[in-house]
From TrEMBL:
<dbReference type="Pfam" id="PF09643">
    <property type="entry name" value="YopX"/>
</dbReference>
<dbReference type="InterPro" id="IPR023385">
    <property type="entry name" value="YopX-like_C"/>
</dbReference>
<dbReference type="InterPro" id="IPR019096">
    <property type="entry name" value="YopX_protein"/>
</dbReference>
<feature type="domain" description="YopX protein">
    <location>
        <begin position="5"/>
        <end position="118"/>
    </location>
</feature>
<protein>
    <submittedName>
        <fullName>YopX protein</fullName>
    </submittedName>
</protein>
Amino acid sequence: MKLLKFRVWNKVSKKMHNPQAISFDIQSCNPFAVSIPTKSWDPVEKYELLQWTGLRDEDGTDVYEADLVLIDYEIYKVHWNESQAAFELISLKGSPAKDADILPTGKVIGNMYETENL
């Protein structure tokens, strides 16, 4: 079974968290509540859920959706492509998208929410 891991960006406090739990609706499978350390359940609308890709970078760091990864002197954003049901890398310079399978050759340098000036 594939390990599912998430981290969450709080849209109100502008902070990243590792959730204690995420509650999903049984019928629709959609998330509806998030619990973070030192806080009770909050509605999922307060958060941006960022899924782990299942991959690690060259340093062994877990790579999540919306992470910024440096590969061959170019910065890519990790993005979920709904139509292909796969993670892909979107260049911040406009180069063609790349498959996420090259993530182990890169280095996570931040994410779209916490990293400024990129």
